């Protein structure tokens, strides 16, 4: 299973996104012995599935091919024990609808807040997935804006690039794009300094490459400048 099932794209994607995986020594299972003891069967490997607070969901014994193992994982995710509590599901549905409207209106801070609030609610639901997908789209849009700013910087349109990055820094505060936006802003300052003083240009480009790795478009631009 370790060579042909677990590494497969369709299986590894689900494991990475939805599960925390723990490998246990069958001869010395330690605290996991109680959980593994609930699995019916006596053929290795054992797979035991549990909630974050330790409630046993299900388990299997023996080899599982990709199709069977993927079905096991999907079955676990549909377990009532893994669903968002009913009292929160309606709230999440409303949050998802509002987040969609906010995304269309380009109200990124509101989308970020919705994603953060949804993540704090334990369990799986379609509404949570919708909110997270909107957040992923917002991040993609933000990265595209950083690329746009780098292109403007390439053409020495520093004020226009600065306006884009200033808005990004404000809108994406507290998100995974906060660091890239800050790095891009720092890089832009270095490019502006290089344009003002040709004698320091090389040093500024080197600093961008060294200190602004969270903003790849600007690093690539600096590397191209160093090659000129």
Topology:
Blueprint: H1 9-18, H2 33-36, E1 46-50, E2 56-61, H3 66-77, H4 86-104, H5 108-119, H6 126-154, H7 158-171, H8 178-196, H9 201-211, H10 216-227
Antiparallel strand pairs: 1-2
Helix pairs in contact: 1-3, 4-5, 4-6, 5-6, 6-7, 6-8, 7-8, 8-9, 8-10, 9-10
Describe this structure in words.
The protein is mainly alpha-helical. It has 2 domains: 9-82, no CATH class; 86-227, no CATH class. 62% of the residues lie in helices and 5% in strands. It has 10 helices and 2 strands; from the N terminus they run ααββαααααααα. It has a two-stranded antiparallel sheet. A hairpin with a 5-residue loop joins strand 1 and strand 2. Helix 1 packs parallel to helix 3 (66-77) and helix 8 packs antiparallel against helix 9 (201-211). The chain starts with 8 loop residues before the first helix and ends with a helix.
